[in-house]
Specification:
With 311 residues, this protein is mainly alpha-helical. The chain has helices at 4-13, 22-38, 44-57, 62-65, 68-74, 94-103, 105-117, 121-130, 137-159, 166-169, 179-206, 212-225, 233-284, 288-310. Helix content is 74%, strand content 0%.
């Protein structure tokens, strides 16, 4: 495998580098060996691998190595990857792209791992949609293990009520309420991830008897789970139905919170008015019995507000 950094060095010094020309390969080797003497990050073993790479494969991978998005993948630059398909990745070139994927498996896996870390799930979705030919079986298996680990972290949190608050207090668990996170699982291998999805769903249904903040956080996970597109129509219907119920529950709970806040404001206003009226009456020298007659209706109003606030 060639380190992409070395190819960049070669192309910087040999703009029209032709890997099918042995003279150009010799020139490239001299350039890289010279760079090795001034850059400690360039290892001679990597230089030898790069030269051997060009002797063995020639220019057959150059259309891929020059593609903007594949450059972004190999350089691990998530923001530079726009998902636009590479014109060279076709059925006709399938054998070449498959070999390329195996040779650059570590770089491709590194890119996907960074996307997962940065919650750039739509980038992974685009990668598997337009660049799947360069994703080797080994990389797919490693990605499945990594995502399963994230799913298991969520499952462990849901199993332990003392950890439920993680879902709404810690940013590193924000992936759990992102529909795209579950969508990529269905794109990569829906059958493989179905067990995780159902386990998460069942745990949340079991843990609904909790406080409002935790319940809202878990219902947001339920809503996001609908991003998973199963080949099993029963599971699809289940996730969609759960999503509707969870959204209704959130709307209801957030509505109650809003009403509670409104009642509290009204109650405080009434108390302020009562205090002001009492102050005026007391200052005017009205007798105690008359004062009580005036205050009683006001207190009754305050009790009514208090009653509605509790409902």
């Amino acid at each position: 495998m060639i380190k992409f950094k070395l190819l960049q060095i070669i192309l910087t010094h040999l703009e029209n580098f032709n890997p099918d020309d042995k003279e150009d390969i010799i020139k490239a080797e001299k350039i890289l060996r010279a760079q090795n003497k001034i850059d400690v990050s360039i290892i001679l073993n990597d230089v030898d691998n790069a030269i051997q790479f060009f002797y063995e494969y020639g220019s057959q991978f150059m259309p891929l190595l020059k593609d903007k998005n594949i450059k972004a993948i190999l350089k691990n630059e998530v923001n530079e990857f726009n998902g636009f398909p590479c014109s060279f990745i076709t059925e006709e070139n399938h054998s070449i792209t498959t070999i390329f994927g195996k040779l650059f498996a570590d770089d491709i896996y590194g890119f996907i791992s960074k996307c997962l870390k940065e919650n750039a799930f739509f980038k992974i979705n685009d990668l598997f949609q337009s660049y799947k030919d360069i994703i080797s079986f080994e990389v797919i298996e490693k990605v499945k293990v990594k995502i399963s680990s994230l799913n298991n972290t969520l499952i462990d949190i849901l199993k332990d009520p003392t950890k439920h608050y993680y879902l709404y207090t810690q940013d590193n668990f924000s992936y759990t309420i992102n529909p795209s996170y579950y969508e990529i699982q269905s794109r990569i291998d829906s059958f493989y991830f179905e067990k995780d999805i159902l386990k998460i769903t069942n745990l949340i249904v079991e843990k609904q008897n909790t406080n409002q903040s935790k319940r809202i956080a878990m219902n947001k996970v339920i809503i996001a789970l609908a991003g998973f597109v199963s080949e099993n129509s029963i599971i699809v219907k289940l996730l969609e139905s759960n999503k509707e119920k969870a959204q209704s529950s959130i709307d209801l709970q957030e509505g109650r919170t809003s009403n509670d806040s409104s009642y509290l404001v009204y109650f405080i206003i009434v108390l302020v008015v009562i205090g002001f009226v009492v102050f005026l009456i007391a200052s005017s020298g009205i007798s105690g019995s008359a004062l009580r007659i005036v205050i009683l209706p006001i207190l009754l109003i305050a009790r009514l507000f208090s009653f509605f606030n509790k409902k």
